[in-house]
Amino acid sequence: MTVDSIGPSYGITVSRHILDSQRHHPEATGDLSGLLSELIVAAKTISAEVNMAGLGDFLGAAGKTNIQGEKVQKLDAFANTNIKRRMARSGYVAVMASEEEADAIPVVEGYEGKYTLAFDPLDGSSNIDVNASIGTIFSIHRAKNDGYPGTEVDLLQPGRNQVVAGYIIYGSSTMLVYTTGEGVHGFTLDPTVGEFYLSHPDMHMPARSRYYSVNEGNTAYWHPEMHQYMRYIKEVDKTTGRPYSTRYIGALVADFHRNLVTGGIFLYPCDTKNAAQAGGKLRLLYEAAPLAFIAEQAGGRAITDDGRAIMDIVPDGLHQRVPLVIGSKLDVDLAEEFFAGKRS
Ligand code: AHG
Ligand code: MN
Ligand code: MN
Questions:
Q1: Which amino acids bring their CB within 6 angstroms of ligand 1?
Q2: Closest among 118, 136, 21 to 76, alpha carbons compared
Q3: Closest residue to atom 18 of ligand 1, CA basis
Q4: Does pTM top 0.85 for this prediction?
Q5: In a mutational test of the pocket of ligand 1, which residue from 101, 123, 326 has the highest number of ligand atoms less than 8 Å from its CB?
Q6: From the CA of 80, which ligand is nearest?
Q7: 182 CB neighbour count, 10 Å cutoff
Q8: Which of 268, 270, 274, 319 maximizes ligand 1 atoms within 8 Å of its Cβ, making it the mutation to test the pocket?
Q9: Would the pLDDT of 7 be above 90?
């Protein structure tokens, strides 16, 4: 029997996909593939817990407040510990940052690897108790020195330096979406065998959409240009497909994923409510930057509302916040024109 007569393969697992991509890089040592594999194990564990949340002891707050002053949900704490402990002994990571921890997280001595990992263990955690989609977001950079304990300095790199970015969305199915800078690929978890299979190869975001995702409860805090933009996309004009429709889940990862698949724009602009934190709510290192990398790789854009590319911002702190406008390219272009005062 020849190899050809065996027939097509039954579905590409994420491990196969990662190893196939590694083959395009003869210089690769396999460390990045190893790191992703470990992260995927953590994701599958979190997915299993999320699916059991209604049955177990996980609903509700853990009774603590994190360094952002927000209530820590029990699943937040579970996801954080799970990723942290697994990666700290993986041998692939030099230092980590998590939304749930104030400081850089060291790895176990003797296990220092060459990458940094920044993560939001559970994004959209206020959705846990209502059975809506939540996710885990991650961002990987090269550490400055291979094999040494990393520090905050290793983590404070612009999104443009990311080696990998991705998220796992715990929705009606669990999906992993990631990019290594060679397109965006989506995998769906088959829970019966515990494998992620390639379901969305080479994802592209439609250039123009008819959907916007924004918390309109914040209208009173917006700047005038945001008001003008919102008024425009809600006007009736069939020739330009307006008014747009609203879709807002309240979990960035879920709102972004929807817009990635169907097209759309997500805005969390600079507002007076968040004036104490540079006007934005969302975190640069483990929310905005990884999703910006994915958006750009899928043909979309991600900017602040003063027009800076999210990918170019050099972080000045682990928990730095930024205004975020992200999604379909032509929609972000249009918002940028309004915000720059070129349209009104
Ligand atoms: P997290 O649950 O990790 O703290 O993130 C919540 C974030 C983000 O997921 C979402 O887009 C945003 O908060 C929603 O904020 P509002 O409730 O202010 O709309
Ligand atoms: Mn988050
Ligand atoms: Mn979170």
A1: 70, 99, 120, 123-125, 215, 250-252, 281
A2: 136
A3: 215
A4: yes
A5: 123
A6: 3
A7: 11
A8: 268
A9: no
108-130 pLDDT per residue, tens: 999 999 999 999 999 998 888 88
- Give me the phi and psi of 182, to 5 degrees please: -125, 60
Atom of ligand 1 nearest to the CA of 253: 9
Burial of 19 (0-12, 13-18, 19+ CB in 10 A): middle
Atom of ligand 1 nearest to the CA of 70: 4
Range 168-182 average pLDDT: 97
User: Whole-angstrom Cα distance, residue 260 to residue 180?
Assistant: 17
**Percent of the chain residues topping a pLDDT of 70:** 97
Please tell me whether residue 304 adopts helix, strand or coil conformation.
coil
176-213: per-residue pLDDT in tens? Answer: 999 999 999 999 999 999 999 999 999 999 999 999 99
Q: Which residue blocks in the chain are alpha helix, DSSP H?
A: 14-23, 31-51, 74-88, 152-155, 224-233, 252-262, 289-297, 329-339
Nearest-CA residue for ligand 1 atom 17 is: 250
Which ligand approaches the C-alpha of residue 219 most closely?
1
Give the chain's domains with CATH numbers: 4-200 (3.30.540.10), 211-339 (3.40.190.80)
